[in-house]
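Hey,
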Amino acid sequence: MTGTRIGTHPNDAERLRLRGHDTLTEVIGEMTFTEGFYLVVTGRRPTGMQLKVFDAALLLLMDHGLTPSALVARLVADSNRDDDQIALAAGLLMVGNRFVGTMTGAGRILAEGMAAEGDKAAWAQQLVQNFKNDKRRIPGFGHQAYKEVDPRSARIFEVAQNAGVKGDYIRLVKTLSAAVNADARRSIPLNATGALAAVLHEIDFPTAGMRAVAAVGRCAGLAGHIQEERELPIAPLLTQFSESIAYED
């Protein structure tokens, strides 16, 4: 029989359950949102170490100023002033392979690297060569503003290591980073999404769901932009700028 282990249906008036826990007595008032998010995705309540790292991961990409996702959310909010969910959904559509959400791709690479037998440095060198031959960028590396070091990556590693993670995936991604830099003959920053892929592996979060961490964290930041658009609107300025772009026949 097909079923779900996530939560009880609204028509089940006798129970309110979330992943085997009583929603009213064991979840609400007893768990943080971060704990509940980890639980609902993995089916496990996080340990203290996992909770510390997962909470930091949700905060890391919450906001980065007037990014494309924030601009889209603000423009849509200007047209739908009473429907925050529409602006949030529009902004979240920008969480993809180019902006914010490359940790799933990075996570898959790290999972393959951890499963690979033999010397990890040799694996990393071969992976870099494969991507180079295919003329593809390795997800999790490079940033338009941070040219050598992404400080967010350093900080999330610090939090994870202080929390007591084993560190195997952090060491692996650093090995890959060294191979990337050696091939480029310059420093290519391991960006926040690449670092997040490593630390999410450290806390046993499923690879396929890693982009959801970026989406959920960014959603909170977009809520802030939508509220600020009501108080300090920039949509009229964006419209004014668009009117300055000349039509060319």
